[in-house]
Amino acid sequence: MPRVSVLMSVYNGERYLRQAVEGILNQSFTDFEFVIVDDGSTDGTWEILGEYAARDSRIVLLRNEANIGLTRSLNKGLHVARGEYIARQDADDVSLPHRLEKQVAVLQDNPDVVLVSGNIDLMDADGHIWWRRPRRTAPPGLVAWFLLFYNYLGGHSQVMFRRQAAFDLGGYAEDRPCSQDYELWLRLAEVGKIVILPDVLLLYRTHGNSVTSRHGDDQKRYSLMDSQRAMARLLGEEPDLAEVIALRDFWLGPLPTEDRMGMVHNRLKTLSKAFLKDRVRRGLDEPNLGRSVAWEVAGRFLTWARVLARQGRVFPALRACSLALSWYALSAALCVRRLAWPLSLSMHSCTS
Hints:
CATH class of the largest domain: Alpha Beta
Largest sheet: 9 strands, mixed
Helix content: 40-55%
Strand content: 15-25%
Distance between the termini: 76 Å
Structural class: alpha/beta
Number of strands: 9
CATH topology of the largest domain: Spore Coat Polysaccharide Biosynthesis Protein SpsA, Chain A
Mean pLDDT: 92
CATH superfamily of the largest domain: Spore Coat Polysaccharide Biosynthesis Protein SpsA, Chain A
Order of helices and strands: EHEHEHEEHEEHEHHEHHHHHHH
CATH architecture of the largest domain: Alpha-Beta Complex
Shape: elongated
Low-confidence stretches: none
């Protein structure tokens, strides 16, 4: 029985398929099977897969007679997979050589961890790295907190999760053509810890025919709905979609309009209280998680204050600063440093 099942679904992916397959076959960790679902391709995808399967017995091929979509194809592969851990791989991305080795070590040594991700660099259609994305990592509790608002993992193709945990939750939600990853991560975060390694584990390819390029609007719509549902599970009531959007903008930008400041503050207060209580109830709490959440929120309010100060909005900037202090009193010195220069410019312009 292999330790890992690498799971890929591909539809008309012949252009980048060889690089994706070879990235897995050349891993330093070798105890895996490679389950690949051809979702009714009409190009040379099936023939390419056949070439590799003839040379490497670890490859398990499944073929859909008609295209059934990514979500259903992933569930089909998930039911065939035998590994204890599932490593996702898209047909246009490239896993770096030590990816599986590093992720297996985390899951093997930490039974309370249900999913391990890593960082990614972005490459173009020709394989040239065009953006070394700022490294994203945080303690598991903060990862779960950020996931309430947006897909903090930032991708699908770089994760490894426990197969049984996904099975127990029903696998991927088949009522959605996209954003199925974020929806599953939210549910997994309720039953175990999610770790993001600081290492770059994958080269993520951006091109005009990618799922993100073709379904960007749908992804945003479904992910907002998933965030709304996750908040509702904590609060016992469903927040308005406008509130969910404002909360996401608070973290990702562009920052909400200043008239939403009070709502954002109040909603974050109720959410953080419910979130921390829920983590304790589930046995997933961590030392100082409440302080960490408060520090992150305070930091965003300080950023908001600085943006407003640069715009000459002195009183809204001071209000944002006071809200930051209500979250984390030790941010006072930081508040002064961040606002001193923009406020001095604003006051100078008012008097000149």
